[in-house]
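Support case: S-adenosyl-L-homocysteine complex. Customer-provided input:
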Amino acid sequence: MTLQEILIRRMRRDGALSVADFMGTALFHPEQGYYARRAPIGQAGDFTTAPEVHQMFGEMIAAWLVDYWFRSDRPDPFLLVELGPGRGTLMQDILRAAGGVAPSFTRAAEVWFVETSSGLRREQAVAVPAARFTDDLSAVPAGFSLVVANEFFDALPIHQYVKTGRHWRERTVTWDGPSSRFVFALAPHPSPVTVHLPNVADDGDIVEISPAAQAIAADLASRAATDGGTSLIIDYARDPREPCGTLQAVQSHRRVDPLGEPGAADLSARVDFQGLAATARAAGASVHGPRAQGAFLETVGIRERGRRLAAMQPATRDGIESALRRLTRPEGMGSRFQAMSIACPRGPDPAGFA
Ligand code: SAH
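Agent response - structure generated as follows:
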């Protein structure tokens, strides 16, 4: 059965699906879901992430982590956790770069990958043979932990609510027989979560809520508050001034219809950093940022690193310049992507946010 058939069958049985249910099934169905079927990341895949642009990205994250670890009195052992490691490139760069400047850091690190896709797990195990795997952050043992999540939260399913008259109604997805395609619809009744949504909104405004993302932010916060440590979340940020839907689909580096061919395209939604920050604070952590990725990387030292690399290998100068532009400039990932840290309130202030 194709994913389309699976979804239609469920809709005939249960009625329209929430956007979150549609997104979750399209991405994570164990046989027909996007992450089970496709090799998503890189030139030959559907999208390219910052660690795949250039090794400097991972080197900056390594510097950030090592700095925090030193200023936390070098706990040994500690947990080095990555959520959704993709092809494993970021952790590979982190371990290589950290190993060069602080071998005691890499020796003390117990690496954990939180990953649901079995195909990506295989690639990650080759990139980082020492990694241990789990599909849920809550299964990572307790202890001082440093957690990295790059373009992870944007893959977590979102619910959408549309302002219609005096009420918010949940946006749904249903199968339109006559036109043979999936279409958006609205739940027939106002949503009971309405009381938590802003009441000053225009007709047609859309808010997005991700219970999965909120749960992980709460988990990161209580982990940091209880056992010490910090996390670094980097992602495509939702603009709170634009109350519109941000569900998008990408295939072969092009935007496509998010309802067009479930399972064949990557689905993502921009991340609500303000919502994650509020959840993390309520769970007892301190929050640093969000701050634009470009400003964050420059504060940590990416320009200096680029200059040094170019001086060592003059032939790579153009490639380094273009990677720097892509990672730090507003027309690249520099301002649409934001960085935020959820940290132990008794620990040091993480670098890069002042
Ligand atoms: N961080 C990587 C990959 C980003 S793609 C990079 O920057 O290149 C998103 C990753 O998150 C993939 O590895 C995907 O399989 C994983 N993922 C998505 N949702 C997940 C979930 N709920 N639990 C664990 N992993 C998840």
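Residues 35, 41, 49, 51-52, 84-86, 90, 114-117, 120, 135, 150-152, 155-156 surround S-adenosyl-L-homocysteine (CB under 6 Å).

Case will auto-close in a few days if no follow-up is received.
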